Amino acid sequence: MKNNFFNELLIEGEFSVYNDYQFEVDESFLFNEDKPLKEMTGQELTNKKIKEELQLHKPFFESPIEGYKYLVASNKENAKQYKLSAYGHVFYTELAKLDITDQKKVLNFVKTWGLPTQIKTNNTSRKKGTDIEIDMMSLHDFRTKFGFFDAYFDSIRKLHNVETKIIGNVKKTSYEEFSQHFIDSADLIYHYKPSYKEGEPVALAFFEDMFEYAYLFLNLAIFKKAEFRKCENCDNLFEVTHQRQKFCPVTPGRKRSSCEMAYNNRLKKLKKKGD
Ligand SMILES: [Zn+2]
Hints:
The chain has 275 residues and is of the alpha+beta class.
């Protein structure tokens, strides 16, 4: 791929992953709804309205008060960091395979990657330069953004699953037209600011949250016509970065692919049984 604005964006900074996270509920939503409207405070009326709107959505995390749940960093000691530039091509496929109806899986994901979205009123998430530190996330916000991302990533899944059909379409138009349509279908915002690197002007990338980061790397994959493969362990798609790769890539804080280890362990057990 020729050099262009997007693949030349300078991606600096690190993402903080805290020691532990826990689910919390905003109790201001637990008001008595039978109270006459006249007697409700302004906050209660607002909450009632939000609550009614939220109920239009499919229940999330089974709790009747799901919309008011938060994931919060509960232990901020010894936070770990990972480099955004090193894990960009891994993060978006890991996000795409997350089952957000399973609280345990969401928690494990967050313990590896940190919180994907942040409460907007909190302006302290980026304390220095391009680093991202998020210590509180609304599950409603996360669910909404995840829904859009999942639908967007579905184009990649379809392209991979029914390859012949889609390639048929691609031939009729062209890869560029197809990818342009794909890219247009998401409401993407990229942030950057002019900077210098080794005396040369560069565009330095900023991310408000992990979804922006995921969209950028997914689009870079489309631009360079990256190859996707299905992991031999979990059957999810990952971006191929070296030709012999059979499993989902290594995630921050690990030395080996957890899918590769799970696959090998299963194989060992099968062999034992066969003996
Ligand atoms: Zn896998």
